[in-house]
Amino acid sequence: MVRVAPGMVPQALANTVWAYATLGRAPEAGTWEALETAAVRVAPGMVPQALSSTVWAYATLGRAPEAGTWEALEAATVRVTPGMVPQNLSNTLWAYATLGRSPKAETWEALEAATVRVAPGMVPQALANTVWAYATLGRAPEAETWRALGAAAVRVAPGMVPQNSSNTVWAYTFLSSLRDVILPSSYAAVWELVCNMEARDFIAEERMMLFHAHLMHQSFLSSRATTNISTPPWLIVEARDAWLSRLHDDITVSRSQWELAQILDKLGVRHEVEHVTDDGYFSIDIYLPDHDIAVEFDGPSHYYSNSDSSPGDRDGTTTRIAKTELRDLFLGQRCAKVLTVPWIEFSKFNASAVKHTLYVRELLAKEGIVV
């Protein structure tokens, strides 16, 4: 593979990385380096299918392209979007969202235009993946785009399988809760589809998404007259259990989080690490009970990758991912204040304990906590 990569044409490169992704097998380091080099070389000649298959493979493998590779692939994205069919578009958007990659303005404009154009031909999976990607990227669709996707959802809803319906419901509630996007008429129809299914129809991940959607609806959308929906009994039991199971499985304390807690110890500020909210639905990195403040340490995974760096390093990125924004909305309903500590700021002091302590002291002072 290392030897033949230099002679690959675009379709051969796309088929190769697609095959690795489909098999769930990551290439060896040398092979991957050769494929990356080939991707940069052949990207200018890619057609829509080759481009979408390539970025889909990167995302499926969980491999972040190098900065130069991504620059070449993004340029190809802008160039080929006019020729994309629904599957090409949905796979490309899904890849951007899965990689936590925020598209450049030019790229997003091209993807929006393609969404409007291909929406009438979308099948259920393409529709679900597309709206999921918009939500995950925190992008409110333009009015024309939203109308096109809404019309597509009405058309394809009867053919949705559980995965399609859970992704679509989650995306609708997410965009409406975070970006005030007006819910389409298909919202109730997709919820009704979910209500007619059983808990066993959904895998744990899908049940968790549905409970998340339920929490969003109850917290942010229930007052809207147009959003009355039914709630199947199993959603409050089995789906809730899936949510709570993930909550407990995901409770881990990072090194930076421990360091922050130790600084609070030195400053004499009473705190609790990984405090679970009273309703049991959320875990707070560090909770200050005397002040009812949630302190969240936002590491690299809480930020989108920019267009000039690899998703693996995320240096210089300052845009928080949409899920982190929504987390703060939820915690803001459960605490008097949410205080975030960006890793970008915290890490610039390197290992200086004195500077870290001064930084935390200043953060607390801004909240009226003098130590």
Explain what this protein looks like in three dimensions.
The chain has helices at about 10-25, 30-40, 50-60, 65-80, 85-100, 105-120, 125-135, 145-155, 160-180, 185-195, 205-220, 235-250, 255-265, 320-335, 345, 355-365; strands at about 270-275, 285-290, 295-300, 335-340. The protein is built from 16 helices and four strands. About 60% of the residues lie in helices and about 5% in strands. The N and C termini lie far apart (about 60 Å). The protein folds into three domains: about 1-105, no CATH class; about 120-250; about 255-365, VSR Endonuclease (Endonuclease, Chain A, 3-Layer(aba) Sandwich). Helix 9 (about 160-180) runs parallel beside helix 11. Strand 3, helix 14 and strand 4 form a beta-alpha-beta unit. A four-stranded mixed sheet has the order 1-2-3-4, with helices on both faces. The radius of gyration is 22 Å and the shape is globular. With about 375 residues, the protein is of the alpha+beta class.
